[in-house]
Amino acid sequence: MYHFLKEHPTETIILRIRNGEHSKDFLETIKTYLAPDSRRGDRIARHLYSRHAKDGTVPTLGELRGKVLILQDFKTSPAGLYGLPWGPDTISNYDHEIAPGTHFLVRKWNGVKSHLSKAPQPGSNKLRITHTTASTGVHPIDIAARNSPHVGMNNLLGQYLKDNEGGCFGIVVMDFPGKLLVDLIVKLNKYQAPELPSLHFDSTDTYTASEDARET
Prior knowledge:
Layout: H1 2-7, E1 13-18, H2 24-34, H3 39-45, H4 61-64, E2 68-73, E3 84-85, E4 91-94, H5 105-117, E5 127-131, H6 140-145, H7 153-162, E6 171-173, H8 179-189, H9 211-214
Parallel strand pairs: 1-2, 2-3, 4-5, 5-6
């Protein structure tokens, strides 16, 4: 991660850390890696976005460039000791797991679209995260890139973004995104992107990474 940020100082890494078993060993391990005043901790601290532990404000992308933002999905005292505390006051998250069988894709997409379409409340400072991914009971590439009987999540997302529905989308987590899908997101970010060619939506799934990616 540090090498990536050194090579790309205008980028940022957002890292969610969660404690699945709520064990004391987990917190001790985190402390070993992230506590200051140690060789390892001081090295990591140089790359982390830091703020006062009681500050639950979501930083801007400009503030995060060249840094790692930890989404702290585990409890500490005070809350948010190592990063932005994960909770309903700071995060608006959609991560519904898809059930076994790709016939649940439509239900998954409806949830994704609903979350993307919600306009932020005036004065809201929540970080919005929408997962289009699947990991339970199906192969992620089947959900991202399928064409029949329903088009994949990447095609659905690409068409949605192409139509420019909604406004601020926040973070969209995807599997196997292709160049066209990435270009659409960059364009919506208005990040000095060159004017993109006319976009055509069809069943070839050009919103998904190449066939080589399916074999990895």
